[in-house]
Design a protein that fits this description.
Layout (H helix, E strand, L loop, with lengths): L1 E4 L2 E5 L3 E8 L3 E9 L10 H8 L42 E5 L9 E9 L18 E3 L7 E3 L8 E8 L3 E10 L4 E10 L5 E13 L4 E7 L7 E6 L3 E7 L8 E9 L9 E7 L4 E7 L5 E7 L6 E3 L4 E3 L2 E7 L2 H17 L2 H4 L6 E3 L1 H4 L5 H13 L4 E4 L21 H4 L3 H10 L3 E6 L3 E3 L3 H5 L18 E3 L5 H17 L4 E4 L16 H20 L6 E4 L9 H4 L4 E3 L6 H11 L8 E6 L12 H8 L3 E5 L7 H16 L1 H6 L1 E8 L2 E7 L5 E8 L10 E2 L9 E6 L3 E2 L21 H9 L2 E2 L4 E5 H7 L1 E2 L20 E9 L1
Parallel strand pairs: 23-24, 23-32, 24-25, 25-28, 28-29, 29-30, 30-31, 31-32
Antiparallel strand pairs: 1-2, 2-3, 3-4, 5-12, 6-9, 7-8, 9-10, 10-11, 11-21, 11-22, 12-19, 12-20, 13-14, 13-16, 15-18, 16-17, 17-22, 18-19, 26-27, 33-34, 34-35, 35-42, 36-41, 37-40, 37-42, 38-39
The structure holds (2R,3S,4R,5S)-2-(hydroxymethyl)piperidine-3,4,5-triol (DGJ).
């Protein structure tokens, strides 16, 4: 709901309020953003509220600049504002930097007007970028009707345009309220009404001033195989920022971040969260000012940005996303999860169960033929897996990573026939077929490069940098986009392909190619070009499940999720690392967006050993897949997988779309829970990082259940490999079993010990407030009935069901 009255605008969502007022006729003062407040109810007028909230100034602070002739005493450097001009005495970060043709700065953009309407921003389609609500809006040709809201499950949003300007330039601050998930989106629009060109050198989608500083900034940072680890920085004086200049949203700093008040936790307290619907370079910054305020900014990175607007042209920033929760980090995550599911991902996939897949990458890498693939599919099918994904190496002459990107034609020699015939074989095993592509890339050793060397991005100096032996295609060139759309459409239209993994394995460095897009505009134009291609491929193939990927999670963002409902979270599938990666990702993105696979042990990225059930338990907190050579597993492992897949299918809807919470981080144990919206069922994951000797008791706590219901709680039974006990097993074995010996291997192949079974009937209140005391953990002095064997890096799943 948005109300504009007497120069005050109030944006209300289910639990939050956002209030701004026009001050001195030209500035927009942010009066409040936080937990919902009454503004003109109960006999209190809006004026009373504004008077109470408005900053009081009688005198300017010393050594500062007076704001304006009308209200002389305001120090702009202290006022909480929605937009700030350069060279006006507000020395904090600026949301926009525009230079005129004569080199002067655009520095006096003042309030002009506000416009408010039902629905999303009316020029959303013209932005060339995805936007919230894209899949719920139909643009109308009927005169007078701009847009129809086609969703039957979510309330139509409302949009407010706050217009600022000078004689030549108009800037619009666009706000859209998504009431039911407590989200407000923001973007800025710049229109050049002057005769001369202007250059935009910096453009954030939003600026927000808050008036407390006792916050920490939580960011999600990392690298390849170590994406989105949570980092918390306590804010003192100065500016804290994260940025991506890689051409993608990047694995170094995700655009999602949070501001957590110092007293807040996962379950209580004030938390703001921010994200960006964008897949390119971005910058997020928080400035703690000496006047006890915080300025928050998120938007495009100014790195190599010189965007020229000729007379009459408009520039749109990407849409930023803000949310507030007074119920801690978990509620902030829940708001974001609901927003992603209801307003970002394609509607047809938002709540649709995702298939359990087998991917051949870590099973074969490039070394495969038809026989191997079909054998893998047969095994997968016997275990209940539903989708077979053929990864890298099926096209051109690609037997390693030095060639063929761009030649999206099947290598019949390698596949022993056509793609159609392979797909038929896979389908005959009862599996759907999916395929890997990397359409933004080109290998120098390729037919495409021979024909179009000018389609690859290079350095004008000739000294070009390669990543994984490959170059990036110039997606700013319409001919390149046409080629990719046509080639991939043909691939999808002529073959029975149910799933596509869209990879992108190197960041962008050089920004020059034959087509000649200006370097300062390149990064943004590249992303808009990518969206054009995705729109023409994904939107036209709504039944194909697209999974984003960029060397794992190098482009995990709301822009990609607008076309592809899930993303390969990381190339690192080690269970322990995934606790950090999926845990970090869970703050901003729901579990149905995270591809999570069970892979081999020792793990290919960390060489760590973890049990087959532990690997599953962690992967079950996302969209489950398997990525290992199923044909080489032991009988015990195959049985374990068959059981896992059936459990996952039984609880799939809950696991993929339930309400995700981070319950506890207790010493070495982390507990997550996914709860059904009706509170009748939940699945809980308990993960032990390091075994602590002689500390054997653990409690299982739950959240978000009905306190007055009875629940049955039971663990998902798992098997314990005899290898876990090394030569301790000889204390009970009638024959001597040598550690790592042949006998141990034979027994381990055929047999595993039964893990504990636990079952409890409890009240929701008991489970939530007292917790269940679980069976004793193995403490080194003997193995009793029902002992929980939980060494380093082990996990358990608990099923909680109302009875
Ligand atoms: C990087 C991806 O993240 C992997 O899963 C795999 O698809 C390889 N690329 C293939 O080259």
């Amino acid at each position: 709901m948005i109300a504009v009255k007497n120069n005050v605008y109030t944006i209300s969502t289910k639990s939050t309020s956002y209030v701004c007022a026009i001050r001195a006729g030209k500035y927009i003062e942010n009066l409040y953003y936080g937990r919902k407040i009454g503004t003109d109810e109960f006999g209190i007028t809006q004026e009373d509220t504004v008077t109470a909230l408005k900053e009081k100034y009688n005198n300017c602070y010393g050594n500062t600049i007076e704001a304006t002739a009308d209200e002389k005493n305001i120090t702009l450097n202290s006022l909480k504002m929605e937009f700030s001009n350069p060279a006006t005495g507000d020395y904090r970060m600026l949301p926009l930097l525009i230079r005129r043709a004569d080199g002067s700065l655009v520095d006096r953009l003042y309030y002009v007007d506000t416009v408010c309407y039902d629905g999303v921003y009316e020029e959303s389609e013209a932005t060339r970028m995805p936007y919230a609500g894209r899949h719920e809006v139909r643009w109308s040709n009927t005169p007078g009707v701009k847009q129809e809201w086609i969703s039957d499950v979510t309330k139509r949003p409302m949009t407010l345009e706050v217009i600022l300007g000078d004689d030549d330039i108009v800037v619009k601050l666009i706000y859209t309220a998504f009431e039911e998930c407590d989200v407000i989106t923001r973007r800025m629009v710049v229109i050049n009404n002057g005769k001369d060109s202007i250059v935009i050198q910096q453009a954030a989608g939003m600026m927000l001033d808050l008036d407390r500083t006792d916050y920490s900034m939580i960011t999600f940072d990392g690298l390849w195989t170590r994406e989105r680890h949570k980092n918390e920085k306590f804010l003192v004086s100065g500016t804290y920022s994260i940025e991506s200049t890689m051409g993608t949203s990047g694995n170094i700093h995700n655009p999602f971040f949070m501001l957590k008040s110092n007293e807040a936790s996962e379950h209580f307290g004030d938390v703001y969260s921010f994200n960006l619907i964008y897949s390119g370079n971005h910058k997020e910054a928080v400035e703690v000012s000496e006047y006890g305020k915080i300025r928050v900014m998120t938007g495009m990175s100014p790195y190599n940005m010189e965007y020229k607007l000729t007379s009459g042209q408009t520039f749109y920033t990407p849409e930023a996303v803000m949310s507030f929760s007074h119920e801690g980090l978990n509620k902030a995550s829940y708001n974001n999860h609901q927003f992603v599911l209801e307003h970002i991902v394609p509607r047809q996939w938002a709540h649709k169960n995702r298939p359990v897949l087998i991917n051949n990458w870590e099973a074969t890498y490039f070394d495969f033929n038809k026989h191997k693939l079909v054998k893998l599919a047969k095994e997968a099918s016997a275990l209940g897996i539903e989708l077979f994904v053929l990864d890298d190496g099926w096209f051109g002459k690609r037997d390693d990573d030095t060639s063929s990107l761009g030649d999206w034609f099947v290598n019949e020699r390698k596949l022993g026939g056509s793609l159609k015939s392979l797909i038929k074989n896979i389908n005959n095993e009862g599996l759907q077929f999916g395929i890997w592509v990397e359409p933004e890339m080109i290998s120098v050793k390729s037919k495409l490069y021979e024909k179009h060397p000018d389609w690859a991005l290079k350095s004008k100096s000739g000294d070009t940098y390669y990543g994984r032996n490959q170059l990036v295609l110039d997606y700013t060139n319409p001919a390149v986009r046409e080629y990719i759309v046509n080639t991939l459409s043909e691939l999808l239209d002529e073959n029975n392909i149910a799933y596509v993994k869209w990879d992108m394995n190197r960041p962008i460095t050089d920004t020059w190619a034959g087509y000649g897009t200006e370097s300062g505009e390149f990064f943004h134009e590249y992303v808009c070009g990518l969206y054009d291609v995705l729109h023409r491929l994904c939107d036209t193939h709504p039944n194909v499940l697209f999974e984003g990927c960029s060397a794992g999670g190098n482009r995990f963002d709301l822009g990609i999720l607008s076309y592809m409902p899930q993303i390969w979270t990381s190339d690192d599938s080690d269970a322990r690392e995934r606790m950090y990666i999926q845990g970090g990702t869970s703050y901003g993105y729901p579990q149905s967006t995270m591809g999570a696979h069970v892979s081999a042990a020792p793990n290919h990225q960390t060489q760590r050993l973890s049990g087959i059930d532990t690997r599953f338990d962690v992967a079950s907190m996302g969209v489950l897949g398997y990525e290992l050579d199923l044909t080489r597993l032991t009988k015990v492992e195959k049985e374990a997988i068959r059981h896992q897949v059936s459990i996952y299918k039984q609880y799939r809807e809950l696991l993929q779309f339930g309400h995700f919470s981070r319950v506890r981080e207790d010493r070495q144990v982390t507990t997550w829970q996914i709860t059904a919206e009706d509170k009748l069922a939940a699945v809980s994951l308990m993960y032990r990082f390091d075994a602590e000797p002689s500390l054997s008791y653990e409690r299982l706590y739950a959240v978000g259940l009905d306190e007055n219901r009875r629940y049955r709680v039971r663990n998902v039974a798992s098997k314990v490999s005899i290898k876990t006990f090394g030569n301790l097993i000889n204390m009970v074995s009638p024959v001597k079993i040598k550690e790592e010996g042949v006998l141990q291997a034979i027994i381990d192949n055929m047999y595993a010990m039964n893990g504990e079974t636990e079952e409890y009937i409890v009240h929701g209140s008991t489970l939530m407030y007292a917790g269940i005391s679980l069976n004793q953990r193995f403490v080194g002095t003997g193995l009793g009935d029902g002992t929980r064997v939980m060494p380093d890096n082990s996990a358990r799943l608990y099923i909680i069901e109302a009875i």
